[in-house]
Amino acid sequence: MRAYGELNREELLAMKQEVEASYEEARGKGLKLDMSRGKPSKKQLDLAEGMLTVISSNEDCMAEDGLDCRNYGGPVGIPEARRFMGDIMGVPMDQVIVCGNASLTIMFDTVSRSFTHGVLGNTPWSKLDRVKFLCPVPGYDRHFGITEYFGVEMINVPMTPEGPDMDLVEKLVAGDESIKGIWCVPKYSNPQGISYSDETVRRFASLKPAAKDFRIFWDNAYCIHHLYEEAEKQDQILNIIEECEKAGNPDMVYEFASTSKVSFAGGGISAVASSKANLEEIKRHMNYQIISHDKINQLRHVKFFRDLEGVKAHMMKHAAIMRPKFETVVSVLEKELGGLGIGSWQMPKGGYFISFDAMPGCARAIVARAKEAGLVMTGAGATYPYGKDPEDSNIRIAPSLPTPEELAVAADIFVLSVKLVSLEKLLEEKA
Amino acid sequence: MRAYGELNREELLAMKQEVEASYEEARGKGLKLDMSRGKPSKKQLDLAEGMLTVISSNEDCMAEDGLDCRNYGGPVGIPEARRFMGDIMGVPMDQVIVCGNASLTIMFDTVSRSFTHGVLGNTPWSKLDRVKFLCPVPGYDRHFGITEYFGVEMINVPMTPEGPDMDLVEKLVAGDESIKGIWCVPKYSNPQGISYSDETVRRFASLKPAAKDFRIFWDNAYCIHHLYEEAEKQDQILNIIEECEKAGNPDMVYEFASTSKVSFAGGGISAVASSKANLEEIKRHMNYQIISHDKINQLRHVKFFRDLEGVKAHMMKHAAIMRPKFETVVSVLEKELGGLGIGSWQMPKGGYFISFDAMPGCARAIVARAKEAGLVMTGAGATYPYGKDPEDSNIRIAPSLPTPEELAVAADIFVLSVKLVSLEKLLEEKA
């Protein structure tokens, strides 16, 4: 296969005619496919059916400390749920608060609280002229959405295969007191599937930010979301809570996790882990915001998964469903785009996404083409703050929701769209 | 029975000796009773056992619009839950958003959003020098807690048997642009059990506040929480959403409700009803804060209660448990304190509380005395902003949690504490 870049105008035109025919054929089918969001598939959701009835009587509703989960009380979560979520994050239960159904809400509320009440006695961000966040890119659109909603100025930091560019992170946080935070998905990152190296985690823990109220928002969303069973094919990252303690920066990080992609999306439980001082501040806030979270659902989770081993075993059932989907997409990409020089991607070992980098200036057009042919992708640009990918290159592929059959068709439409737009771009350049 | 105020010093001393002996006897029993919070009793919680398994299979998890409740989506709630909560509030479903397990959280988040983002285009409250709220007193401590946490200046407005003193409310909101809201529990109010008269509701709907972003926080927490089955013994209030529309003030009110005291406390569902413009603003905020609430739990509620008639019938089972408790407390109050002139109370027709007004300057001492004898009451002052009852008179009695047997004992301890402190006070005055 010759790279498209090496083809002359006539060859490009011929190729384009060929690709266009295939594309039109696909479009004619009137398909309706969705690879836009990291939604679990029906089969994955079915795996947790037993959770629906694991609490089936009034007597089942007691927490191990005797608290009746059907009543008020237990604002920080029932003990067994704190232990369970702590085990998932590798954090002692007394450094964990278990909350409602969405870790996104804990993150949002943390930013909101920092604006209205400040962080550990520092000036509320609403009283400051400027508040900035570092945003490793490509990244998670909903993270960037929160900071955009609060008017935070977002600064792009490029991702490397080891995590965010730490030279840049260190330099920026040390030199600018208005930089108050950084969004991180440290394991199987959204969308690239990159896991931070030990050095990256240690450098995070040893940051010397100018702002005393600088915080790392460590969204460990995919901490147990491996695609492979073999230990050597599973990424492991260092424990940021421990590393921050060792480095003398215990208050510098909030870690978040949830079971949204373990049990039910929107019907799971979430948790935050942090230092004692940070948790006290969160508890004080929560004391006004809520009497207690849904402890019945917390108990459901512990009764169903039992413990870390139980939930790890459950995640292997997810992996068995997810792995072939990832492999299908990547094999179509390799087969259809390999060697063409019009895009790059990696096969991740976990998480929910495959990140695709098209030729600069092509991502929006590719997503638009795919949509015309019935395939909804994540909006191009979504992986960057303000929805602006300066290169217009990155596209997030979310292979979880479609069935394997749909996925093969979807991947075909995607590669046809990539080819078509790339050919148009190359022809334009040669015009 | 002669009023204590008519007794002379010797009679008071003799009476005190007698009461003290009874009090010491009660104290000697080492009891542990709790009338502090509006928590449902075990028997009430047991009533909803069927809800635990009403969704028992994967197939049960589909909402009426085909949405899979186990997956992301449906940020405003599933249609049947919006209709259900709308019916409870008397509001069309398209004016309802169903949220998580706590209406308190919706209220908190509404105040928080007003501080960070402002209300319908008005200046964010965080940018204002002063923000004030009107607080009908006595009222709900968690309402006052939210505004206190945000540094809002709270202004007491006395309650009357018809609701808040509307002459004062009208005058205050018309004359002060910094008054941004008022906390209301319009039906079976916390703690007095007062339901607002039609005139009061209409005057609320017709308010002419100086502040364009003035909002009524209408916490309809006890809208279906009657103690009696007979229609004439059930309070009805006018529909504030409709009245505000009629009065040309559709945006002036947020109404809140939940099933915390219908199904499970902390395991229920909550909702907010308001105008289209207000709901759009809430939706925009929620879009950044959460992907979707726990729709499985929303569906559980609708499957279990079915509809308004179903939930009303269920509430009558609650009433059968609650009514004797209220009657026990009130009958002990009447029997032991009637005619003594040392306290006043009313028997409410619904809600969760009995409000007791002691002689001025006695409430704190009474609560302390009760505690010494093993009975935890709501802290004196809690029914007032900043925990400061200017008269030190009001005490909230929460009879729901204890068993009937415990309750009789608890009521005895309470009246002994009232008598003892009142006698001490009168003796002090005569000294």
TrEMBL record, chains A, B:
Keywords: Aminotransferase, Transferase. It comes from Wansuia hejianensis. Signal peptide: none annotated. The lineage of its organism: Bacteria, Bacillati, Bacillota, Clostridia, Lachnospirales. The keyword Methyltransferase does not apply. This is Aminotransferase. The keyword Transferase applies. InterPro entries: AspAT_Ic (IPR024551), PyrdxlP-dep_Trfase (IPR015424), PyrdxlP-dep_Trfase_major (IPR015421), PyrdxlP-dep_Trfase_small (IPR015422). One of its GO terms (molecular function) is L-aspartate:2-oxoglutarate aminotransferase activity. Gene3D superfamilies: Aspartate Aminotransferase, domain 1, Type I PLP-dependent aspartate aminotransferase-like (Major domain).
